[in-house]
Amino acid sequence: MTQETVISAQNLSLTFQTNDGPVHALKDVSLDVEKGDFVSFIGPSGCGKTTFLRVMADLEQQTAGTITVNGVSPAEARRARAYGYVFQAAGLYPWRTIGGNIRLPLEIMGYDKSDQAKRVKRVLELVELAGFEKKFPWQLSGGMQQRASIARALAFDADILLMDEPFGALDEIVRDHLNEQLLHLWASTQKTICFVTHSIPEAVYLSTKIVVMSPRPGRIADVIDSPLPRERPLDIRDTPEFIDIAHRVRDGLRAGHDDD
Ligand SMILES: Nc1ncnc2c1ncn2[C@@H]1O[C@H](COP(=O)(O)OP(=O)(O)OP(=O)(O)O)[C@@H](O)[C@H]1O
User: Fold this and answer.
1) What is the mean pLDDT of the chain?
2) Choices 3.40.50.2300, 3.40.50.300, 3.40.850.10, 3.40.1180.10: CATH for 5-82+159-258
3) Which of 12, 14, 16, 162 is the pocket-test mutation for ligand 1 (most atoms within 8 Å of CB)?
4) Using one digit for the tens of pLDDT, what is the confidence trace for 88-138?
5) Is 70 exposed, middle or buried (0-12, 13-18, 19+ CB in 10 A)?
6) Residues having CB within 6 Å of any atom of ligand 1
7) CA 214 to centroid of ligand 1, rounded, Å
8) How many CA atoms lie within 13 A of 152 on its CB side?
9) What is the torsional sign of CA 217, 220, 222, 227?
10) Is the pLDDT at 260 greater than 70, yes or no?
11) pTM of the predicted structure, to 2 decimals
12) 52 C-alpha vs ligand 1 centroid, how far in Å?
């Protein structure tokens, strides 16, 4: 099978100039993400996970190195609406209903009204918010708002989903369920997903590739190609294979800390 590289970073560095001096958020990061990969980025706070995602999304510019998204610059990929982005905070417009928030990118992209309605219904079911379409964000819990923001990023079917700790604020049962749903969605749509998390089990459960990062400056400490099958029931988390990968992630995180 020929692989198609969707995101390619070569010796990518990003240094923020601050009043307290330069902050080396990313240093010499090289990574290829293939079409259909589910890549998790895991590492301690401040290791540059969000910054890396923001460079992919053209929300930050690297200070050295190169990066392409779908073979073009992040700016061109953004203009081509190559990706949906789910932020840590839900970021819903308070004056729009949940349905209205999810519909917004579809309206901007010119989907017809009946297609908009179908898509809103489908993604609301996917995140278990069916029936909440007419509610306003402030009428939902924080976790439900985050699920709505995930629905919004799923609604327009971009090939790439960039997800920055989307499930961090959710309780464990809902999180497990959304993890399962996300895997189903990924398997059925063959999207490429880049996913930031602090959770080792979440990274191992979801990913085909786990990128372990270390701080100061943000570098890649380990890249683990998961040997787990793509079809994953939740109880795969009790298997020796799963536990082995989790150990390797933990070792990578620990090695990064030793450099401090
Ligand atoms: N706009 C900015 N200006 C200056 N420094 C920044 C800026 N954005 C991020 N940083 C710094 O860059 C480093 C990497 O930040 P980043 O948010 O990418 O880390 P992270 O791994 O996503 O952390 P967390 O897990 O806490 O979300 C941190 O030291 C942070 O303080």
Assistant:
1) 91
2) 3.40.50.300
3) 16
4) 777 899 999 999 999 998 998 899 999 999 999 988 987 789 999 999 999
5) buried
6) 16, 18, 23, 25, 43, 45-51, 218
7) 13
8) 29
9) positive
10) no
11) 0.90
12) 10
pLDDT digit string (tens) for 42-97?
999 999 999 999 999 999 999 999 999 999 999 999 988 899 898 877 789 999 99
Locus of tokens 């999180």: 175
Whether 12 and 28 have beta carbons less than 8 Å apart is answered as yes
**pLDDT tens digits, residue range 153-173?**
888 878 899 999 988 877 788
Instruction: Say yes or no: ipTM exceeds 0.95.
Output: yes
Instruction: For the beta carbon of residue 206, count every other beta carbon within 10 angstroms.
Output: 25
Residue 251 sits at φ, ψ, to 5 deg, of -60, -40
Count of positions (residues) in the chain: 260
